[in-house]
Design brief:
The protein is an alpha+beta fold. It contains 13 helices and 4 strands. It has a 4-stranded antiparallel beta sheet with strand order 1-2-4-3. α5 packs antiparallel against α8. The longest helix is centred in the N-terminal third of the chain and has 18 residues, at 93-110. The chain is globular. It starts with a strand and ends with a helix.
Length: 325
Amino acid sequence: MFINITDTITADNRGSSGALVNYLEKENRIYNKQEERWFNHHGKDFEPFEVRRTIDGNVAKLSKKDPKFFLINISPSQKEIKHLIDRHGENNFRDKLKDYAVKVMDEYARNFKRHGINSSKDLVWFAKLENHRYYGHKDKEIKDGTKRRGELKTGNQVHVQVIVSRKDLTNKIKLSPMNNSQGKNEQHSKKVGQFKRTAFIQSGERLFDQFFKYERNLNETMAYAVAEKNGNLNQREQLDMLRQGSATNYQSRSIARELIKDVVEGMFQTTTDMLGTVGKTVGNFLEILLEPTFVPAESNPVGSMRKKRKKKKGQTQDQSHGQSM
């Protein structure tokens, strides 16, 4: 399960949501199939103008420079989609994925740990199910020349895009998933919340497994992917040993999953004394997951909405490029 949040660096979310809403209507314009309507916890039949009007109208006391909304991408893997189809059928799995998206937004709300923000009902948000994905400049196939930018990706590419307002339902509380407060200052954390993006992504993964009775292998977890990407050679070798053990031994699998769960939630203390060699193995690669510099990979589905780098007054173009290097 891939879940990410597009921030102010990669998307223009300081103005109206109209451009993004219009972009996410593209499949309704291109394909002559049944129209996909917007949905949230209230229903599944919202028009685009209702989405734009509601999001743009929920911006009380936000300045021109403040983000007004955020984009959340909920994308199951090919294996997860197959599981949904096998379990619920080709005609029903999309509705089940929408129900899952509502539960993900419940987790999004609870992750702020703010008084009065307890579920998706306390938020202002709308979601859109999309059936296709397109190759972009970051894809390997574009870089090696085997695919062209904008070409449809193969396989079942069903996913959900969510636009959620920066302000809560009362239009009084600011909620930013880009807040980096980790609770070091208790009073500050109570005021701005302490959203932990890694914990949110992990909760979405765990929720999918529970909601759809999905047996997730260790190498399908977010923790495994992060360690594989950021770990050194020794750490990756240790991780591979643990993965092989978890595939054949129930006890190893249970220990690995519980440790991953604990560390993502910030409760992991020590593994060396508790589990000896296994503890050292897990502890080494899970240290990567707790690295404060780790940020989930962001993707921007709206290429035309990228922000332009502003030049300082009197600065030449060459100077501007020099500073960005």
